[in-house]
């Protein structure tokens, strides 16, 4: 039984790769205690796939990972909101607007990862990182919220979500100057995060607030 379930997403939005899955699959191949699962970037299919993976592996820690193009750092997310408002269609062509992830669910869930300690560990591994206070309103936020809702059924299991930048491969293909991180560095960041989350019962008390 894997101690950690780590998920990444299939490519979406016209991309040929998704660094979240590339890094997660790389890490899963390195470590026997991490089960790596690719989730579909589809509103209807993502949460059933996540639940099935959780029930198969029965981990003590779940880390879901997604791509946030334009971000410069690896960003553990602090809060998921009960809202889907899709800017672009998902891979099944669906584009829900202003609907809840879970009807009658709480307005939001906070992560149970020690995000500040995780950011410190990622930085110590030589990868830029910061705490994020918004996971957006696309499939990433849906999965984050859905994960935390799922874990209410399984006391003691911790979980959360992490966004990662574009990979250099994506930026080169697009011809833009967007920030990027190599997949190997993203994998190193996720490994530091997972190890820290497994070893840290209470988060560290340092500022990670945002003015905007």
Could you walk me through the main structural features you see in this protein, from its secondary elements to its overall organization?
The chain is α/β, with parallel strands linked by helices and 212 residues long. 35% of the residues lie in helices and 16% in strands. It contains six helices and seven strands. It has helices at 19-30, 43-57, 115-124, 139-151, 168-174, 183-199, and strands at residues 4-9, 34-39, 61-67, 75-76, 79-81, 108-110, 158-164. The strands form two sheets. The chain has a five-stranded mixed beta sheet with strand order 2-1-3-7-4, with helices on both faces. The chain has a two-stranded antiparallel sheet with strand order 5-6. Helix 1 links the parallel strand 1 (4-9) and strand 2 (34-39). Helix 1 crosses helix 6 (183-199) and helix 2 (43-57) runs parallel beside helix 4 (139-151). It is globular. The termini are far apart.
Q: How many helices in DSSP terms?
A: 6
Order of helices and strands: EHEHEEEEHHEHH
The class by helix and strand makeup works out as: alpha/beta
Low-confidence stretches: none
Taking all Cα atoms into account, the compactness measure Rg is: 16 Å
| Intertermini distance | 42 Å
**Fraction in beta strands:** 15-25%
What value does the average pLDDT take? 96
- How can the largest sheet be summarized? 5 strands, mixed
**Looking at the structure, what is the overall shape?**
globular
Number of strands: 7
Percentage of residues in helical conformation: 25-40%
Spatial arrangement of strands, main beta sheet: 2-1-3-7-4
